[in-house]
Specification:
The chain has 176 residues and is an alpha/beta fold. Strand 2, helix 2 and strand 3 form a beta-alpha-beta unit.
Amino acid sequence: MILLKKVYIIRHCEAKGQPSEAQLTDKGFKQAIEISKFFAGIKIDRIISSPYKRAIQSIEPLATRLNLEIEINRKLIERVLSTESLSDWLDKLKATFEGGESSQEAMKRIVKIIEDVFNNEHENTIIVTHGNLMSLLLNFYNKNFGFDDWQNLSNPDIYLLKNVGNKVIYERLWKQ
């Protein structure tokens, strides 16, 4: 019997900012509880998260309830557009969706993680990451997913990826 492997990609809950140490807002902590409730009745074997505090805090209630360790993977960090504060960061981000070395590198980073997950023994895995990296992943599997789709992501957001006949398909599960 062939098992259908599922990967749930979660964008972190509402946070107080963009730095790696930024915590969830009060609303974000409530959203993390909602994520835990969302997965009630869904068997989860493994949780992998960005090391950013907001990502870990987004999945802690579920990990605690399931008694699962949160595996930290540095490759799930948000893509850094610049080491400086940019007043036109949104324009710079939009330009990366049209192709660019840094977006290609970031896309390869998350796609490799997904491929590794589909090739391991776990049936249902959760990956917690950030909006830009999540968008690049979804764009890899569907070239129509672009900047406007990124802008329409919510905090949090959840997509389910399934490998069906060596083709990865996805669907949005989170209803705001």
